[in-house]
Specification:
It is built from seven helices and seven strands, in the order H-H-H-E-E-E-H-E-H-E-H-E-H-E. With about 200 residues, the protein is an alpha/beta fold. It folds into two domains: about 50 residues, RecR Domain 1 (Helicase, Ruva Protein, domain 3), CATH 1.10.8; about 130 residues, Dna Topoisomerase Vi A Subunit, Chain: A, domain 2 (3-Layer(aba) Sandwich). Helix 1 crosses helix 2 and helix 4 crosses helix 7. Bound molecules: zinc ion.
């Protein structure tokens, strides 16, 4: 890419590191950005930095938030005795969109994948087990139905079983390998309501 200015090449390279952005899209974005008014570019850059500097994990459920406790954990109307375990904050958002779930969440930030070398210590599993020492009645495992999601579900249920806390898995109405965030609300609700005890 020597025919571009070094700055543009650098910008294209940075943008193409983002998920879902190929070289062509990165080029289009880069040229768009350099043609944008200076203030707009400044605002974009500041928003990126602000988001990075201010977003953190909720100290209880580990979802991304800008407070110590996220709005769900700090909502007294939510039932803290029911914890739904999801892989990502995006999955949490998918369930929140249904508006029907009244419990709280635990975000693992990943799933166990021996193939990718991701083990139980690489996700927020220890933190989940610590939470279970409190007053918890049910853990609903809502990891994806991919191989990694199923492996993680199995692993978690084995860990929790001896504690006597009820463990359930969302119903398999969710398409195999499907990312939870792409599934419609009706299907998600059906999966939640049809959950089976493990
Ligand atoms: Zn939280």
């Amino acid at each position: 890419m020597d025919y571009f200015s070094g700055y543009i090449s650098k910008l294209i390279e940075q943008l193409s590191r983002l998920p879902g952005i190929g070289t062509k899209s990165a080029q289009r974005l880069a040229f768009h950005i350099v043609n944008m008014p200076k203030e707009q570019v400044g605002a974009l850059a500041n928003t990126l930095t602000d988001a990075k500097n201010n977003v953190r994990y909720c100290k209880q459920c580990f979802t991304l938030t800008d407070q110590e406790l996220c709005p769900i954990c700090s909502n007294p109307k939510r039932d803290p005795k029911t914890i739904m375990v999801v892989e990502t904050t995006r999955d949490l958002a998918a369930y929140e969109k249904t508006g029907k779930y009244e419990g709280v969440y635990h975000v693992l930030h990943g799933a166990i994948s021996p193939m990718l070398g991701i083990g139980p210590d690489d996700i927020k599993l220890r933190e989940l087990m610590q939470r279970l020492q409190g007053d918890v009645e049910e853990v609903i495992i809502a990891t994806n139905s991919s191989l990694e999601g199923e492996t993680t579900a199995m692993y978690i249920s084995k860990l929790i079983k001896p504690t006597g806390i009820k463990v359930s898995r969302i119903a398999s109405g969710v398409p195999v390998g499907g990312d939870l965030e792409y599934i419609d609300e009706v299907t998600l609700l059906r999966a939640l309501e049809g959950r089976v005890e493990l």
